[in-house]
Amino acid sequence: FTHAIATMGTAITSEHVGILKRFTQHVTVIYDGDTPGQNAASKAAAELQAQGMQASIVSLPDNHDPDSFVKQFGAEKFAEQIKDAVQVTDFELNRVVAQYDMSSLEQRVAGLHKMIDILANIPDSIQREQYAMKVLSYHPAGFTNAPNALEQIHREVLKVQRERQDQARRREMY
């Protein structure tokens, strides 16, 4: 692996991103496979995206970090993991699905609200629509009344975006 950096337990900062941007516009983030590692990967990807970089994320098995994965499975398998990296939004939606019991209506609705928060972060309307179609399958009415369910998802995304804008305005006032 000729182009790699290790943060060594340090969160990626805007200064790190500024340096990275001199060399590339796309970063593949790989942290430990446990929950704290995945949380850190999510935060790192958000920092990269906030500064206009493209980011994808590799999910390692829960009991591995990059070093232990390479030692156990080899560099070729690690390269396959990198090749299979997912876009940040896919990563976040997959985490929600794993976190909530989608067979329970209550859990499904809670998960759907988390997914809507994720959709509200997507600035590109075409990309947001593609992900809304994925989220539709988790909506309780997604199969029986897809057009209305999709419209409801859109309304909820707009509601979250407006709430965030209002909060930002209130913060600016004080």
Query: What is the N-to-C succession of helices and strands?
Result: HEHEHHEHHHH
Mass-distribution shape: globular
Strand content: 5-15%
Give the proportion of residues in helices: 55-70%
Overall average residue pLDDT: 92
Strand order of the largest sheet: 1-2-3
Largest sheet: 3 strands, mixed
Distance between the termini: 48 Å
Radius of gyration: 18 Å
Summing up helix and strand content along with how strands pair, one would put the structural category as mainly alpha
Number of E-state strands = 3
**Helix run count:** 8
Low-confidence stretches: none
Quick summary of this structure?
The chain has 174 residues and is mainly α.
Describe, in plain words, how this protein is organized in 3D.
With 174 residues, this protein is mainly alpha-helical. Strands 1-2-3 form a 3-stranded mixed β-sheet. Helix 2 links the parallel strand 1 and strand 2. The protein contains 8 helices and 3 strands. It starts with 13 loop residues before the first helix and ends with a helix.
SSE inventory with pairings:
Layout: H1 14-21, E1 26-30, H2 35-50, E2 54-58, H3 66-73, H4 75-83, E3 86-87, H5 88-99, H6 105-120, H7 125-136, H8 146-173
Parallel strand pairs: 1-2
Antiparallel strand pairs: 2-3
Helix pairs in contact: 3-4, 5-6, 6-7, 6-8, 7-8
